[in-house]
Amino acid sequence: MINTNEIPNKKFGIFMAIAFLAAYIPLTFAAIAYKNGNTLLFMLLFRIIAVLIPFFAVLISGLPIKKLGWKPKFKIQYLILSLVGPQILSWIGAALFFLFNKDAFGISMNGLTSMLPAELLSLADFSSIDPNMYLIAMTIMSLTFLPISQIIPSLGEEAGWRGVMYPFLKEKLGPVAGKLVGGALWGIWHWPLVIIGSYFYEGDYFGKPVLGPVAICISLCAFGILIDYVYEKTGCIWIPSLMHAAMNASATPLMFVLKSGNQDLSIWGPNCFGLVGALPVIILAVIVLFAGIRKAKVN
Fold it and tell me: How many domains does one find in the chain?
């Protein structure tokens, strides 16, 4: 891990300028592509280009990227926590969401087909696919293939956020405020997608367009605390990258359990970015945060 005295204010300012301002260009065009239904262009601009910019921001700003912890230190308990934890929390959050929105539950392929470009939909007959079996398959993939396949894009963000931004903010603002501000900034980084593209929160949700940007900051602030926790415990940048990838993957199976026509409820769930769906993550993050405060007082 980078020692905070190796992150001078000037270099941190350069890092933040590149990580945000440079990333906002592909993020804005990605949002426009998503809004226009061009899923492939959206994935290219967001999942491949924008997410790698924080990594290059670390390089360009001259910060010691070699000290992020590249040697594998796969402590088994944190490896399992990072891979399985987001999935368990997401399903608990989804259960809470459907507890209050029973009529919105329904297993179908609508969530997937709404994301796919028309050209791809014309190549396959999705009506012949059993959505129940597909849901099982995607749940298994979200615990295995999907997080592993997304670890490099997630690493692009983690090198910047947990590798540089969080250590700097925790040093300057204190461990609690640093994590909270860091999480809010991580959410703000996603604002073009939320505000322009209605990504994460679709339909005419309650509080649109103000509540969506707030909700993404809250959910990512909570996840940021958990991801930073595993980084602090392992000192290996691959572990938070895995948890980040698992967080994204955990939302995939939940695409198949929300009935078509219920997109207005997206601000609440069922995935872990909705305000109800994120409750288990928020509760666990608060516990981790207070445990850290208590430990610091004892020491």
Answer: 1
